[in-house]
């Protein structure tokens, strides 16, 4: 009977593991439905209501004025988007830019969701585990996390500027090669 018991134990554990995998998926889904999805719906609704109250044309003019300078377009604009709207809502700021700048804005904004986390964890709590993993080594050495967070932030701004400029150049070249209006 020992072999039969072992086989039965194995089959029970296999079945429990199999259903456990689906239970973990259901728990994740429940977390999304009760967490991030309602938050995104409320944020999208609030931002759209604000845009309608102010007027989309006014917002577009403000965005175009504030993003005429390429340095501000790929530093200040994505930083404000990530800080105020957080990840993933921040990418909606791109709708106020001309088509040729949208890919570069997205590249800049998506590249900034990690560097901002050390100073402003609300901007992308999902990335916090990465920062905390890195910072654990710093705290083990007895060092302060402040300088690390500031360095991440500053290097992040430099990186998003470079990525934004390069992506815009590539986008414009691709649009021209396809005969699109730039």
UniProtKB/TrEMBL annotation:
It comes from the Bacteria. The chain crosses the membrane at residues 29-51, 71-91, 128-146, 152-172. Pfam families: EII-GUT. One of its GO terms (biological process) is phosphoenolpyruvate-dependent sugar phosphotransferase system. InterPro entries: PTS_IID_sorb (IPR004699). The keyword Membrane applies. PROSITE patterns: PTS_EIIC_TYPE_5. The keyword 4Fe-4S does not apply. Keywords: Membrane, Transmembrane, Transmembrane helix. GO terms for cellular component: membrane. This is Glucitol/sorbitol permease IIC component. The gene is srlA.
